[in-house]
Amino acid sequence: LEATELLRTVPVGGFLSRSRRTLLNRVSFTLERGEIVALVGESGSGKSTLARVLARLDTPDAGSLRLGGEDVLTLERGGASLAYRGRVQMVFQDPFASLNPVHTVAHHLERPLLRHGRATRAGLEDRVHALLESVGLTPAEQLAQRYPHELSGGQRQRVAVARALAVEPDVIIADEPTSMLDVSTRRGVLQLLRGLTRERGIGILFITHDLASARHMADRVLVLYAGSVVESGRTADVLAAPRHPYTRLLLSAVPDGADFLNTPLPVRPATGPMPVFGCPFAPRCPHADARCHDTLPPAHVHGAAHTVRCHLESSKGASDNAAVPQ
Ligand code: SF4
Ligand code: MG
Questions:
Q1: Distance of CA 35 to the CA centre of its chain
Q2: 46 CA to middle of ligand 2, Å?
Q3: Are the C-beta atoms of residues 101 and 141 closer than 8 Å to each other?
Q4: How far apart, in whole angstroms, are the C-alpha atoms of residue 203 and residue 141?
Q5: Could you tell me which residues are beta bridge partners of residue 302?
Q6: Nearest atom (ligand 1) to Cα of 246
Q7: Among all ligands shown, which has an atom nearest to the Cα of 46?
Q8: In which element (H, E) is residue 174 found?
Q9: pTM of the shown model
Q10: Residues 182-214: pLDDT tens digits?
Q11: CA dihedral angle for residue 167, residue 172, residue 174, residue 178, rounded to 10 degrees
Q12: Residue 201: CB partners within 8 Å, gap ≥ 6?
C-alpha cells in the first residue's frame, strides 16, 4: 500500500465561509507486506481520518493511493469495491460497536467468507472454527455459537480480527485496536496482530496514541502532528533517537522504565489556531524561530530513511542530511 501526498480538508464556519481546516497535510508513506507500521499521534492529529481514507470510507481532496501498484482512487471512485475490501480490512477501536449484537460469532465470520468466496457452504463450519482457533478463541465450536454480549472485550476484539482475516487480506488497518481493552488483555491482542504479520505476511498499519505499544509492535513508525507526518523511520531510530521536537516531547511524556503498555500518552491539545504558513508545531515548539512561523520545513532524510520535517535539521550540518523536494 502506498500513499502519496494525501490531502484532506473540511470547511469550517458555515457554508459561506471559505476557510478550511486541514485534516491530512500531504501524508505519504508505504506499507509493505509482512511489516507493521505504527502511526502515532494525539487525538485530533488526523489518525482516524487517515484510517478512513485508507479504508475508502473517506476520499482525499488530493494525493494518490496505490495498492500493489494500482491507483485505487481512480479505479474505485465510489468507495471500496468488494475486491478492495478483500485486500484491505479494518479493525476498529471499539469491539462493542463493531459486532452486531443479534448475530452469533459464527455469523460474523460466515458472511465475509461467503461474500469473498473464501469458503463454500460445505466447508463453512470448518473455516469458521479454523479462524477462531487462529485468533486464540478456543474451544472454537463453543465460541462460534456465542453472541457478542457473552464475550469479554478482548474476545470481541479477537472476533473482529478473525473477521478481518476471513477475507485473507494483504493489509489490515488497525485503528487503536487495544485502547478500549484493559491492560491485561491488551498485550494478548497485540501479540496476536504481530504473529499475523509474521505468519501470513499481512501488512498492518497500527494506529495508536500509545508510544509504548508502537515500540513493542512496529518495524517502522510515522509520527503525525496536526495532519502532517513530522518524523518517520525505523522504530529503533525514531523512538530511540528522535530528532523532531514533537517526537521528543512525546517520548519525554513516557517515564523511563515504566511499563509502557500502562502509560498512554497524555493528550496535550494544541492551543490556538493552526498556523497557515510554517511548521504546524510552531505554536508549541520550544525551538521555534521566525522561519518556523513562515516556511513549512522540508523533509530531511538521515541514513536509513529516517525522515524529519523540521528547520533545525538544516542547521545541523549537511553531511548525513539532505533536503528532499516536497
Ligand atoms: Fe520547532 Fe521550527 Fe522544527 Fe517546527 S520547524 S519543530 S517550530 S524548530
Ligand atoms: Mg481516533
A1: 13
A2: 8
A3: no
A4: 29
A5: 306
A6: 6
A7: 2
A8: strand 171-175
A9: 0.89
A10: 888 889 999 999 999 989 999 999 999 888 889
A11: 70
A12: 33, 34
Q: What is the mean pLDDT of each run of 10 residues along the chain (326 residues)?
A: 93 72 91 95 89 92 93 80 92 89 97 96 97 96 97 94 96 92 88 92 93 91 94 94 91 58 46 66 90 92 90 69 47
pLDDT digits (tens, 9 = 90+) for 293-314: 999 899 999 887 899 999 999 8
Pairing of strands 62-67, 70-71: antiparallel
b/e burial code for range 199-234 (CB count within 10 A of at least 16 → b): eeebbbbbbbbbbbbbbbbbbbbbbbbbbbbbbbbb
How many C-alpha atoms does 241 have within 13 Å on its Cβ side? Answer: 9
Tens of pLDDT, residues 60-89: 999 999 999 999 988 777 777 889 999 999
- CATH 3.90.226.10, applies to 2-87+169-324: no
Q: Is 247 helix (H, G, I), strand (E, B) or coil?
A: helix
> Can you give the residue ranges of every domain in the chain?
2-87+169-324
Which ligand ends up closest to the CA of 279? 1
Side by side, which strands form the sheet with 20-30? 20-30, 2-11, 62-67, 70-71
pLDDT for the residue 272: 47
Alpha carbon of 9 to ligand 1 centroid (Å):
23
Residue 10: strand pairing partners: 21
Task: Choose which residue among 279, 289, 291 to substitute to test ligand 1 binding: the one with the highest number of ligand atoms within 8 A of its C-beta.
Answer: 279
In this prediction the ipTM stands at 0.95
Find the 48 Cα to ligand 2 centroid distance in Å.
Answer: 4
pLDDT of residue 129: 98
Nearest Cα to 273, choosing from 13, 88, 65, 85? 13
CB within 6 Å of ligand 1 — which residues? 244-245, 279, 281-282, 285, 287-288, 292, 297, 310-312
